[in-house]
Design goal:
The complex is a heterodimer. By secondary structure, chain A is mainly beta. Chain A has a single domain (3-158), classed as Immunoglobulin-like (Sandwich), CATH 2.60.40. In chain A, 8% of the residues lie in helices and 44% in strands. In chain A, the strands form 2 sheets. In chain A, strands 1, 4, 7, 8, 9, 11 and 12 form a 7-stranded mixed sheet that branches. In chain A, strands 2, 3, 5, 6 and 10 form a 5-stranded antiparallel sheet that branches. Chain B is an alpha+beta fold. Helix content of chain B is 13%, strand content 25%. Chain B has 13 helices and 37 strands. Chain B is globular and about 85 Å long. The chains are: A mainly beta, B alpha+beta. Chains A and B meet through strand 7, strand 8, helix 3 and strand 11 of A and helix 3 and helix 9 of B.
Chain lengths: 175, 797
């Protein structure tokens, strides 16, 4: 999927308070009385801090605790005093089912959220690897809401899996 | 033994002249139409027990704790038709038929009377005043006495019955915690009582009223039946899921560990115990027929390195179903209902030795078989508790008739997403790879059992302890579990244990460490059929290449495939209805049903917990002077219980937190340290990684980064995990073990500081943290009487 297919600005502009927008988009899940604010998705590390996704984001598939397969992203917003919200996430995957999930109690610190986790409960890692995906995230509290989308490719660049206390890397198993 | 009549009147709480019929009111449920996951639920009657009287089967219809029913139904056994519905008290559970067929007594848990029903006129002809929570009963063979269990009072009440069916209370016998089922030996000399929560069986001499033995099972006795001189008890495994020789000594052998080789949920088995009542001892203990090798972590009997020799002898692996529930004698045999796998099995019993031999097993046509009886013509009457029907089966297991005794007017069961979750909760085993595991095994009647378990989410898996939690009052006590990290959307790690991905070829990372072929499901590689299941040498981590490898437990290639196959078989559909479990498109807000895979089932189970408080209405009087004094103490600034335990759940939760306290708190009692001072309460880093709400000290926050890099456990004596506040509502009916690891045996131990004058001989006070008293509320200043007042108040919540 080309990045132009998913333009953050286009989505944000459809929201109340962001100007413009199609009628169909104004019928979105965003409750009419909530004030929209902008946010963006990216990665966060202690070393690099928040790095927003660029064109064709790499969405790293992680095999995590107990073998759960997930993608973890972070959100950033300049909205002042937005500290805790609930995230609703949808991921359209090329040639596969759409994943949906919710994460309550998402906390923000210095405008950056904790990890937003999208779980893949349907299939196995290699099934998804290399497929393009469109991730939409809505974060809201009682009065405010932001909606952001990112397009990218599901990748598996970490050679290790993290199902238990210690990573298991190629060559570790069966030895 | 207690004094007969005076004590009976005290038990009844009134004299005959001032008695008025009363029924308890269910707890309100804060989960309402304001919540998008709420949906109207069909009325169900939840048929439970059955008794045969003449040519009729009588079935109790208790309803639920939230919406109790008040009816028993009579079914004509010849025509297979319902012939009458008789109004009785609220939440009727047990039914006892007088041996001469002259009277039927129905035990109404939420009403203060037993109903005497005339089997001829089909009318409630008398109400016998009794305490709330009379639960089950049994007549003596001569019909002269009636023995009744009382869940509230942990006792058996004995009644004299004359020829004109007049009942006179004689007295009571104290038994174990939450007695339910009761049976009498054919010679009338022995009564056996199943103490469901207390995990033991009381043996009572009917001549002296002495409890002559308390037979500990370390598992819930789900039912009872005398077969000749022997007592057959459907139950579960005794394991606590700890390592065999590490962690707490939960088998009482004086050594660490529980003495069984499997750990975590692999140790969940289904068992039948045969007790020799004359000796008050277990003569035989039989276990699941698939105890080995159907999960990658199962221990093989030949696996000496992992204590395979600790497995029960293979000739005791004869229990064919899951969740052995009720038993009924039939000649020299016994029929067992398996409520967790929708099955019934017959066993033959050797009268000399008490040994069982497995007989035929058959599937029931209705879900969650519970009560069972044998008709005069040899048919087996089985109550389908969730299916709302009574099945009449021939001895060969074929169905003769299925009778709608409950309420299917709202549609065939399940009709909503909450009912899908309920079905999964009670008939889980079909969704577990070994066919043995059920949610209800530990959450009997959604209550908890008096047992601590090792949980797989810990740093020190197999050594740590968490008290079993009651699955009740969920709607306003989120987030759930001691770690306060989960709600109805995401507690999938719990049911993950029933079917781990390591068992499914295309997800088996030990087989395909670099990932299975992308088209693995469509074109299964040869490895899926010629390579064995994964293996685990430590009970946790999956490995491959070791000599003791097992066949795969299922042909499903992914867990998704497994779940959808089982959902189609058990539930009859592969997607949610969408009334309570749905996906929401983040952009459009459009809602849609979801597949009943692990995630969908988890969420259905969550909605079930929200839709039903399952809290048994509280019979304790909040207006006694003692309770009122206790309330004042509870709310005082010195004890200050109310800050962390605010109403209505009497816990801080996401929804109820008037004082603005942290939902997860520093430990209020000393953590569960091992002998080296390591905090066994800590949860695994991986668990935290998928549950960001978990709050636990990082090693580097307490010790140097370098030392933590060198040894991640270097600070595990200093680190703490924050735990949430356990709701006090409904505590009156909960298992006596309290605090997160179940160390406190009763409220006195949980509330008292060490050495408190209220403590009884042998009791310990755990209200301290690392030697500092009063960390679990200020109680050291209370007198013994004041502490009892406080306890009496908490018991009214």
């Amino acid at each position: 999927m080309r990045p132009s297919e998913l333009l953050l600005g286009a989505v944000l502009s459809a929201l109340p308070g962001c100007g413009g927008g199609h009628a169909s988009q104004q019928d979105s899940a965003q409750e009419a009385d909530k004030v929209a604010f902008p946010c963006e998705l990216g990665t966060w590390t202690a070393a690099d801090g928040f790095v927003p996704f660029g064109d064709d984001a790499k969405l790293e598939l992680q095999m995590g605790f107990q073998g759960f397969l997930l993608v973890a992203v972070h959100a950033r917003t300049a909205e002042p005093a937005f500290s805790v919200g609930e995230a609703t996430m949808s991921m359209q995957i090329e040639g596969a089912d759409t994943l949906n999930g919710q994460q309550p109690g998402v906390s923000f610190q210095d405008g950056v959220s904790e990890e937003l986790l999208v779980f893949f409960t349907g299939n196995y890692l290699s099934y998804y690897e290399g497929r393009t995906a469109n991730l939409a995230v809505r974060i809201e509290d009682a009065t405010r809401s932001c909606l952001v989308q990112v397009a990218g490719t599901l990748v598996d660049e970490d050679p290790c899996i993290h199902t238990g206390a210690d990573p298991i890397c190629p060559g570790d198993t069966g030895s | 033994m207690t004094s007969p009549l005076a004590l009976l009147l005290a038990l009844v709480g009134c004299t005959a002249s001032d008695w008025e019929p009363r029924s308890l009111t269910p707890y309100p449920n804060p989960f309402t139409a304001d919540d998008p996951q709420w949906s109207p639920q069909p009325h169900r009657s939840k048929p439970q027990e059955v008794a045969i009287v003449g040519g009729e089967a009588w079935v109790s219809l208790p309803g639920t704790a939230d919406n109790p029913d008040d009816t028993v139904v009579a079914v004509d056994l010849d025509s297979g038709k319902v012939v009458d519905r008789v109004g009785v008290g609220s939440n009727p559970t047990g039914i006892a038929a007088r041996p001469d067929g002259g009277a039927i007594v129905v035990f109404n848990r939420f009403s203060n009377w037993m109903s005497v029903v005339d089997p001829n006129s089909h009318a409630e002809i008398e109400r016998i005043p009794t305490d709330f929570y009379a639960t089950e009963g049994v007549f003596s063979p001569d019909g002269a006495t009636l023995w009744v269990t009382n869940r509230w009072l942990d006792s058996v009440v004995i009644w004299q019955v004359d020829d004109r069916n007049r009942f006179t209370g004689l007295g009571s016998v104290r038994v174990g915690v939450n007695p339910r089922d009761i049976a009498m030996s054919p010679d009338g000399r022995t009564v056996a009582v199943a103490n469901l929560t207390g995990l033991d069986v009381s043996i009572i001499d009917t001549a002296t009223w002495d409890e002559v033995a308390r037979v500990g099972l370390r598992s819930p006795p789900n039912g009872l039946a005398f077969v000749g001189d022997w007592l057959v008890v459907p139950t579960l495994s005794a394991s606590s899921h700890h390592q065999p020789f590490a962690g707490p000594d939960t088998d009482g052998d004086g050594q660490p560990g529980d003495g069984t080789p499997n750990i975590n949920f692999q140790d969940m088995q289904n068992e039948l115990v045969v007790i020799d009542p004359s000796r008050g001892e277990i003569a035989w203990r039989y276990t699941s027929d698939s105890i080995c090798c159907r999960d990658f972590r199962d221990v093989d009997p030949a696996d000496a390195a992992r204590h395979g020799d600790l497995l029960p002898p293979q000739d005791t692996w004869i229990v064919g179903g899951a969740m052995p529930e009720q038993a009924v004698a039939d000649g020299d045999g016994v029929w067992i209902t398996y409520s967790g796998s929708d099955q019934v099995q017959r066993f033959e019993l050797d009268p000399d030795s008490g040994a069982l031999t497995a007989g035929r097993i058959f599937d029931t046509v209705g879900h969650n078989p519970h009560g069972i009886a044998v008709t005069d013509d040899g048919r087996v009457a089985v109550v389908h508790h969730l299916g709302e029907t009574l099945g009449l089966y021939r001895a060969d297991g074929s169905l003769d008739a299925e009778v709608e005794v409950g309420d299917l007017s709202g549609g065939a069961y399940p009709a909503t997403d909450a009912e899908i979750g309920e079905l999964y909760n009670f008939v889980t085993s079909r969704f577990s790879v070994d066919g043995d595991q059920t949610c209800a095994a530990c959450h009997r009647e959604q209550d908890n059992i008096n047992k601590v378990f090792a949980m797989p989410l810990a740093v020190y898996a197999g050594k740590n302890s968490r008290m079993t939690m009651a699955a009740r009052g969920a709607a306003d006590s989120r987030p759930w579990f001691f770690e306060g990290a989960m709600d109805q959307t995401n507690f999938r790690p719990v049911i993950n244990e029933f079917a781990r991905i390591e068992n499914f070829c295309c997800e088996d990372y030990t087989l395909f460490p670099n990932g299975a072929p992308a088209d693995c499901v469509d074109n299964p590689p040869a490895e899926c059929t010629d390579q064995p299941n994964a293996y685990s040498s430590d009970g946790v981590t999956a490995e491959r290449g070791l000599p003791l490898a097992h066949p795969r437990p299922t042909t499903a290639l992914t867990r998704e495939q497994f779940y959808l196959e089982r959902a189609a078989e058990v539930i009859g559909r592969t997607t949610s209805f969408g009334d309570g479990v749905f996906s929401e498109d983040a952009i459009t807000g459009q809602l849609a049903p979801v597949p009943l895979n692990l995630d969908g089932i988890t969420r259905a189970l969550g909605v079930f917990l929200l839709q039903n408080t399952a809290l048994l209405p509280n019979p304790n009087d909040p207006a006694t002077s003692s309770a009122l004094r206790g309330k004042a103490i509870f709310e005082s600034t010195t004890a200050n219980c109310v800050s962390c335990h605010p109403s209505p759940a009497f816990a801080v939760s996401t929804d109820i937190n008037r004082a603005g306290l942290p939902v997860r708190m520093e430990p209020v009692v000393t953590p569960d340290y091992d002998d080296d001072g390591v905090n066994l309460d800590l949860v695994a880093a991986g668990f935290i990684s998928i549950f960001p709400l978990v709050e636990q000290d990082a090693c580097s926050s307490l010790c140097s980064v370098d030392s933590c890099d060198e040894d991640a456990a270097v600070c595990d004596d200093l680190r703490n995990v924050r735990l949430n506040v356990t709701p006090l509502r409904g505590l009156w009916d909960r298992a006596p073990r309290l605090l997160h690891d179940g160390r406190a045996n009763g409220l006195r131990e949980a509330l008292c500081t060490p050495g408190h004058p209220a403590l009884q001989p042998g009791e310990r006070g755990f209200n301290e943290r690392d030697g500092v008293p009063d960390t679990h509320g200020g109680t050291s200043q209370l007198s013994a009487a004041e502490l009892e007042d406080l306890i009496n108040y908490v018991m009214t919540l």
